[in-house]
Amino acid sequence: MHEPQCDVTMKNCREVIPCVLGTNLAGAVDMDRTLKRRFSIGNLTLRRWGRQKIGAFTLGLYLYGQNNDLVVYGPINICELRVHGGKFTLKGSERTFNAFCAATTLDVHPVPRENSSTYALVTGASQQRKSLKE
Length: 134
Fold this sequence. Notes:
0% of the residues lie in helices and 57% in strands. It contains no helices and 14 strands.
């Protein structure tokens, strides 16, 4: 399903927690906590107004669909993560452990089929830190 582009611009917003609900998201993304660089994922683009200071200090992700194959690079903090099919990888920069998953919810649902490859993988540096696998 192809959804129309959604652009969100924030002004005079000191702190924000973007929560993204996506279906079959694929590719790699990173989010600058100040939104100095725009943040794009799926059909959403999140940006700040001019030089306004923004604090996007954490991110919630709700991923649905068997074709999710999303990689999120640090520095980032994931506050809530739900994976309903497909793959998700959270990867910190080498030797920094700057990708955090301090999730109040970490919810992984397998796709109901034989030999499902549904998983969420949380890594830091070049070492695997935590892995959830069906």
